[in-house]
Design goal:
Length: about 120
């Protein structure tokens, strides 16, 4: 815990106490993979980073819509949706011409799936 003037900061998943106000995440909010506290011009800013994995079916649309395997990608961002978008972009980078992904599942557990492509 760090004390800066009248402001007390706690890093990680903790709380930020500033001038008697208590700010805490609720249980319904997704927890970030990491957080950091920055003090700029006397203002306290909490920065978070979220990481996600995505697993999608690979579809070959040349000669029909055949499932040819699965692909796993990873990504991170300062919001959950940006982390999911980055993971989806990473998964799409493994595809060949004439393929696309569908039925994607996201996970915050970064050890759940192995990165890369599993072709049938």
């Amino acid at each position: 815990m760090k004390k800066i003037g009248k402001k007390i900061l706690a890093t990680g998943f903790g709380l930020v106490l500033a001038a008697g106000a208590l700010l805490a995440p609720t249980a319904a909010v997704a927890q970030p993979a990491s957080t950091s506290v920055a003090v700029e011009d006397g203002d306290v800013q909490l920065r978070a980073s979220y990481s996600r994995l995505v697993k999608c079916q690979i579809i070959n649309y040349k000669g029909g819509t055949n499932i040819v395997g699965t692909v796993v990608g990873s990504g991170s961002g300062n919001t959950v949706s940006k982390a999911q978008s980055a993971a989806r972009s990473d998964a799409n980078s493994y595809l060949h011409t004439g393929e696309y992904t569908r039925h994607c599942t996201y996970s915050a557990d970064l050890t759940k799936w192995r990165l890369g492509v599993d072709r049938l």
